[in-house]
Amino acid sequence: MRLVNDLKSIEPLFHLRSSIAPLKEMPRKHISTICNGPFHVTLRNINQEWHQLSMDEVWVIFERWLYLTKHAFHLQIHNFVLMNNHYHMMLSTPEKNLSDAMMYFHREVSRDLNRFGNRINRNFSGPFFKSQLLHTHNFLNCYKYVYQNPLRAGLVSRAEDYKYSTLSGILGLQKLIVPVEYDYLLFDGKVEETLDWINSEILEENLESFRGALRKPQFKLRRDPVTRKPNILESHLI
After folding, report:
1. Upstream peptide bond of 27 is cis (omega within 30 degrees of 0)
2. Concatenated DSSP letters for 140-187?
3. Proportion of the chain in helix, strand, coil states, percent, rounded to 5
4. Residue 223 maps to which CATH number?
5. With 0-12 CB in 10 A as exposed, 13-18 as middle and 19+ as buried, what is 17?
6. pTM above 0.90, yes or no
7. b/e string for 26-65 if b means 16 or more Cβ within 10 A?
8. What total of structural domains would you count in the chain?
9. What is the average per-residue pLDDT within 13-29?
10. What is the pLDDT, as a whole number, of residue 146?
11. Residues 60, 61, 66, 71: what is their CA dihedral angle, to the nearest 10 degrees?
């Protein structure tokens, strides 16, 4: 846990880098600035490698730069889950600045992962993947999909027990630095019922359909290949 304590003591460095430097990256396709979301965003580690640091240490790095990036770019973070070799996040960008925000976030996280992990290589596999969630129904299903990742991976028996997720923090199960938006799904309804829904199994065929839709810049479910009718997830929760 020494590195966790070290990370918590780097406030001077943290504030020094909070002045947003010019974003100099290799050329890549720029995300459209027309839309403000909400988006699902994910990015994998290079070669799908696990992090060099412990998950506790990686979590500290991610949550600190999520905090800064949210305020620097005026993001609205809806949820975030850190896995061993990738992450998932749902967010909105009122200032239509998703590309700049994510480029900054990934650059600074990568610097700290290298600094504290004694690395010099790239950490991430390339450009992040985003999908704009065009309808409330898509948002609800994505919310469950993101929070259920650790459960599907067999890391916990309940999604809310996973340490590296904003879900456990907003439920008060651990301290949360990531400034997420008010969770109306949990707190404007019945918390236990919502948690049971998050933890309920997703059928494999629905899971594959949903993942396929998330690979598109704008979330789009394929029609039933046999009947050509709209996908069942257009009107049902996963």
Report:
1. no
2. HHHHHHHHTHHHHTTS-SSGGG-TTBHHHHHTTSS---S-BPP-HHHH
3. 45, 10, 45
4. 3.30.70.1290
5. middle
6. no
7. eeeeebeeebbbbbbbbbbbeeeeebbbeeebbbbbbbbb
8. 1
9. 37
10. 98
11. 100
